[in-house]
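Review form for a predicted model. The reviewer records the input and the model, then writes brief findings.
Reviewer: anonymous (R2)
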Amino acid sequence: MQGQNQQQAYDRGITIFSPDGRLYQVEYAREAVKRGTASIGVRTSDGVVLVVDKRIRSPLMERDSVEKIHKADDHIGVASAGHVADARQLIDFARRRTQVNQLRYGEPVGVETLTKEVTDYIQQYTQVGGARPFGVALIVAGVADGEPRLYETDPSGTPYEWKALAVGADRDDTREYLEENYSDELDLEGGVQLAMEALASVNDDELAPEGIGVATIDVESEAFSELTDEEKRSHLSEFGLLAADGDEETEE
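Model under review:
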C-alpha cells in the first residue's frame, strides 16, 4: 500500500521526479498530443509546408471554426496537435513575442529564436506546482534570411529541428512514410505532395479538400499563405488522393 501511495505522489506531482527520473505529468501530456488529429511539416529547398487533418466530429459544426494552422507572423506558420485550448494560448504567446521583437529590434523574429522562446515558456509549466504541462505539440515553420526552418515543440519544453515530421495521431506510421520518401531535392510542390501523401497513407489513401488544411512559406516571398479549398482539390486530384465524395464527414 505504501508503494502505491508513493507511486500516486509521483503520478500527481508535476514537480516530483519518480525514482527512475521521470515526470509522469509530462509523459501524460505527450499522450494527450497523440489523441489529437495529425499535423505534418516538410522542409524543402524552396520553403516549408504544413498539412493538417481537420476532421470534425459533427456535420453541424462549422469547418472554419476548426483551427489547426495559425499565422504567427508574416513569415512564420504554426500547426498544432493536442488540446486546442492549450495551442491557442501558445499561439497567442508566440504572436506577442513576434510583435515585441519587431518593436524592439525593428526586424522580424528568427524562426529558431521564436521556437526557443515558446519552449522556454512551455518548460516553466513543468517546474511550477499547481499547474499542468501544455497538452499540445506545435510545428513551427518559417523562412528567415532566405533559409527555411522547421521545428517541433514538445510538452517538456524541448525544441527539435526537422527536415520533415509529424505530430498527433498515427505519428509513428506517418513518420515512417516521411522517412522512406523524403528527399533533400524536394521543391515546394514536391513538399506539398509528400505531406499530403503522408497524411493520406493513414487515411485510406484519400483526402477531402475540406477535411485538411495546407499552408506554405516560400523562400522567395518569405510569406505565409494558406491554400483555398479549390487549390487543395486541384492538388489532391493531381496527386491521385482526392476522395470520391469530397463532402464526406469522418469522426475525429
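Findings: The first strand starts at residue 39 and ends at 44.
Further findings: The helical segments are 2-12, 24-34, 84-105, 111-124, 171-181, 188-200, 229-239.
Recommendation: see findings above.
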